Structure to design on (344 residues):
């Protein structure tokens, strides 16, 4: 694939990409993407995961909850909600702790302007994609409506998104940020393919085989796994770990542990470094919850933002005071902004 060079002349609301940007998707890559996201290809196309998926749009700017994504359709799968909440957590990280907005001034980060909302979303998507490539390179997937790069076959059925992709290889974060800022309206189209485009970009950036390697034996005897399971719609911790830490491990414990039966010992690679965003889990009862072996690197993240998973219900809790994780005495000085649950 070509490295991105130069500036595009793409106009706002013109989704067609200049031919010089990236390369059209091939059939092999299209099949790999559909399989790593959904498990099988060809398969029935569920519109809510493609052109009729949730757009990444905010609530009204300059108002309470302006930092929150507006999820209009609550009848979506738990795993889809989890992906949206992981994006929301990264938006909060940008709003509160990275101060990415060009017009931040002394504004309340919890009541951002429309420009600040856009800045935070661009920063969040950039961070999500960039860290999955070890912060050295990435692949950005964007649709080309003149596309049709992959035709219907016995191996692939068209879905309105995958066959039209341009794959853009990028080797520096600044270029990725510029491109996302330029084409952010594609991710905000509602309904639209924004969430799937992000998952596709993350999957190709990490690498299909690397994701399977991350998942390890838990992915099955044929080493098959998918990031957005459609059979039971339950939460997939490999996907959440990929979004939070950049590695698609299904394990939540710290570091390396060993599992398996009496005749076999397997290496279980968990969370290797302290996560920027945390994860808290409750699964049915105390025994089931303890069996997940949730480690301190997810319980006590670098920033006081936690993705919450409770019996397939998903939300976010956060505190705007970074000192909360540096000084336990701060817990006694909680104000009304320090804990919020985003309910879709």
């Amino acid at each position: 694939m070509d490295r991105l060079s130069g500036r595009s002349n793409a106009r706002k609301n013109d989704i067609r990409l200049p031919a010089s940007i990236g390369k059209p998707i091939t059939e092999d890559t299209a099949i790999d993407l559909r399989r790593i996201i959904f498990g099988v290809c060809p398969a029935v196309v569920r519109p809510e995961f493609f052109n009729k998926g949730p757009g990444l749009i905010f609530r009204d700017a300059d108002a309470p909850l302006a930092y929150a994504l507006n999820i209009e359709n609550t009848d979506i799968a738990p795993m889809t909600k989890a992906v949206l909440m992981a994006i929301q957590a990264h938006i909060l990280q940008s709003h509160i702790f990275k101060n990415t907005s060009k017009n931040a001034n002394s504004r309340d980060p919890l009541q951002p302007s429309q420009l600040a909302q856009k800045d935070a979303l661009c920063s969040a998507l950039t961070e999500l994609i960039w860290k999955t490539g070890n912060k050295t390179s990435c692949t950005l997937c964007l649709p080309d409506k003149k596309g049709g790069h992959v035709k219907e076959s016995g191996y692939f059925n068209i879905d309105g998104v995958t066959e039209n992709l341009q794959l853009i290889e990028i080797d520096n974060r600044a270029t990725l940020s510029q491109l996302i800022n330029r084409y952010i309206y594609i991710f905000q189209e509602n309904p639209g393919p924004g969430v799937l485009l992000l998952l596709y970009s993350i999957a190709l950036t990490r690498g299909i085989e690397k994701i399977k390697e991350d998942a390890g034996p838990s992915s099955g005897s044929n080493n098959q796994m998918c990031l957005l399971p459609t059979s039971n719609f339950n939460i997939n911790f490999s996907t959440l770990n990929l979004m939070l830490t950049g590695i698609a491990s299904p394990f939540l414990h710290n570091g390396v542990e060993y599992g398996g039966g009496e005749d076999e010992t397997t290496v279980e690679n968990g969370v290797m470094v302290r996560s920027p965003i945390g994860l808290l889990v409750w699964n049915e009862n105390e025994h089931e919850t303890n069996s997940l072996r949730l480690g301190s690197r997810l319980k006590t993240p670098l920033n006081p933002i936690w993705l919450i998973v409770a019996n397939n219900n998903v939300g976010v809790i956060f505190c705007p005071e970074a000192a909360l994780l540096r000084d336990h005495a701060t817990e006694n000085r909680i104000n009304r902004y320090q804990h919020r649950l985003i309910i879709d």
About this structure: Residues 1-14, 334-344 have pLDDT under 50 and may be disordered.
